[in-house]
UniProtKB/TrEMBL annotation:
Residues 25-138 form the Activator of Hsp90 ATPase homologue 1/2-like C-terminal domain. Belongs to the AHA1 family. This is SRPBCC family protein. InterPro entries: ASHA1/2-like_C, START-like_dom_sf. Pfam families: AHSA1.
Length: 168
């Protein structure tokens, strides 16, 4: 099965937001735990360690990347169970990301936002986030983890086409 890309771009005052959404038939507190508790993030992204709080930096191990590298992430905002903002700065660049959660009638929507200063490289970035969010879905559903090979490079053209439409 080939996953269908769902990401979209939205122009902002500072650049462009890459937005991806997933919905879960689960209470918001349970989805929040999946994206903030180390033993649960380990199932779909990687574990983290440190004293997590707004303004502090934690270490995150990217368990599904080659070499399982550790990276530092600064917690810019944490408002349980609705909003988490983090930023990273490493050889991949300076990245600012947010998770926004909302619940309605027993369904929780998770919106992932990557704040981009440029759409250059979105053909590489977008498939990666689609993969990780589907890893989150699989970890919650207890289904087999998807293969990154189903996302990249097959979704690259989709995300590059979004950037071509962006009037940046």
């Amino acid at each position: 099965m080939k996953p269908v890309p769902s990401g979209r771009l939205r122009p902002t005052a500072d650049g462009t937001d890459l937005i991806l959404t997933r919905t879960f038939r689960a209470p918001i507190d349970d989805v929040w735990a999946s994206v903030t508790e180390s033993e649960r993030t380990a199932r779909w992204f990687g574990p983290w360690e440190g004293d997590a709080a707004p303004g502090r930096t934690i270490r995150v191990r990217m368990a599904f990347e080659e070499g399982e590298a550790w990276t530092e992430a600064r917690i810019d905002a944490c408002e349980p169970p609705r909003h988490l903002a983090v930023s990273t700065s490493d050889e991949a660049g300076d990245w600012r990301m947010e998770l926004r959660l909302s619940e309605s009638a027993g369904t929780t929507e998770l919106q992932f936002v990557h704040h981009l200063t440029t759409t250059k490289g979105v053909g590489d970035i977008g498939p990666g986030w689609e993969y990780y969010l589907d890893m989150l879905v699989a970890s919650r559903d207890g289904t087999p983890a998807p293969s990154f090979d189903d996302y990249y490079p097959s979704q690259q053209a989709y995300f590059e086409s979004l950037a071509d439409q962006d009037p940046e």
